[in-house]
Write a structure and sequence with these properties.
The complex is a heterodimer of chains A (about 200) and B (about 160). With about 200 residues, chain A is an alpha/beta fold. Chain A has 7 helices and 6 strands, in the order H-E-E-E-H-E-H-H-E-H-H-E-H. Chain A folds into 2 domains: about 80 residues, Double Stranded RNA Binding Domain; about 80 residues, Arc Repressor Mutant, subunit A. In chain A, the strands form 2 sheets. Chain A has a 4-stranded mixed beta sheet, with helices on both faces. In chain A, strands 5-6 form a two-stranded parallel ribbon. The radius of gyration of chain A is 20 Å and the shape is elongated. Chain B is mainly alpha-helical and about 160 residues long. Chain B is built from 7 helices and no strands. The longest helix of chain B is centred in the middle third of the chain and has 22 residues. The chains are: A alpha/beta (about 200), B mainly alpha (about 160). The interface between A and B is large, with 36 and 42 residues.
Amino acid sequence: MSPVPKRPALDRDAAAAAASRFAILAEPDVAYALVETPVGKVMAAQTRRGLACLGYVDQHGSAERFIEELSAGLSPRILEAPARLDEVRRELDEYFEGRRHSFDLAIDLSLIKTPFAKRLLQATARIPFGETRTYRDMATAAGNALAVRAAGNALGHNPIPIVVPCHRVLRSGGALGGYTGGLDRKIKLLATEGIQL
Amino acid sequence: MAVLPPFQRFLEDHRDDVWRFLVAAVGRTDADDCFQETFMAAMRAYPRLRPDSNLHAWVLTIAHRKALDTYRSRKRHPVPVEEVPEVAHHDPGLPDGELWAQVRELPHKQRGAILLRYGADLSHAEIAVALDCSEEAARRSVHEGLKKLRREVAA
């Protein structure tokens, strides 16, 4: 009778432990982690250049779908590596506790495809804590005072909300305008900064 | 249109199969190093991969090559390996672990073929790709390997 080797028994825990060690040792193009905040669960994703995404998970269907978007938009070399996002988590905590008024995180706008939107978000990143601007202000800052609608659209697709504070942009006259994560979040973020509407 | 899955998902989908294959191929002690090297190499090459590739066969082919590196370095730096029995066994009903240890003693091609066939559940066509030979040659290596194994277990 021929001895046919049976597939070795699988030690699932050992395999999972090996995979965890890999996630710590490996240097992926994109490291991501899900982070809980007072305005909901966000997907923090970071490249070698900086934070590329801090999106609200519920706006992207599911975490899995979201990861597929990042894989397609940034790089398929993407790994869940929470330890690599410790600094992001720490600064977010400080911000929501009122102990931090500006973020020291490097930003990577690779997910932004048009130069206008890139300039717009760079200008948005410079709006100080507790202050607001209008969509027209931001269109002007990005180099096209007439592109107010395009400015609103680009801010609505801001991949790094909170850290790139698009919630500080309101309609002229003080109306809220829109928000990438829903208006409740915009109100809550503005309240965090002491702005009552 | 086929799209490569995010590497995280690729890792989750294949880690169990790669681990199980490597435990059979090099033993528990060296399996972890081989596992790390396998997925490091896979991650380096990953973006160049065609999205419709057979990912299972691909990653096991890499694992097989890393196992070969381990055999080669053992030859250069022989170390006692706990799984290799010191006395010949006469018991035809060898426990699986010892049977795999015997598989590791088979000649190069047969060892690879048996490991990929029974340790990783690859088809003969997939083994042919991994070993860079014809499907017929892969089938023959599996057959010859089993025959030799049978003789050794009976001896």
